[in-house]
Amino acid sequence: MVLGMSPAAVCQVFTLVSMCTSIADPNWIEVSYSNSSQPGGGDKRIIYGVAFTMRAPQNLTDTAPLGGLNGWGMWLLYALAALCYITVLFSSSSLLMDFLGGSSSRPRLLGTLYVFTAAVIVSVLAVCVACLYVIRHNLHQGASVRHWGSLSTIATGAVPLVPAVRISPGDSFWICFTGLLFSCLAVVIHVTPSSSSASDPGHQEDTEPLVIHGEEGGGPGDT
Would you state the CATH architecture of domain 7-215? Predict the structure, then answer.
């Protein structure tokens, strides 16, 4: 068995590194706001991501923009975390299979793993965008004001005043997007004919003369 890595597997290495980094980095969605009108206030920031799902029960106040601990935003974060780990599973499996020679022995199965990896990464980004819009909707509708006391300033003792809130994708989102680019590149390299059928041109050059030589040598022997 010849061990080695194809160019597609090299791209998949960068995909795997990008996904692991995005899981370790907690900043998938960033919510920042200014609360300078309150004593001790100022620019504050709350970040949501895979790591947040592990400590959400201890931070009930911060789950308010997600709709609460059982809100749509929280369930989308759980789905985001699950899809991230599924992506790591597909990416590492395809990388190991390519390293063990799967690009030549089982190219279709390996190509399927590459495509599934890219598809799951697209799902990860889609879930992250959906969660971002859920947070934005909750904040604009004021659903979280009654729960998220740190976002409200009681100016008159009765009317909550919500400060300007900025919601944007975090670092992990763009790292994951980079992983998607590498994953798509791995798919393109794998399905390109030059990476499979034309990867061993010497084999075709060796076999064709043998066939021609057999036909020419068999004629005089039969006469």
Answer: Up-down Bundle (1.20)
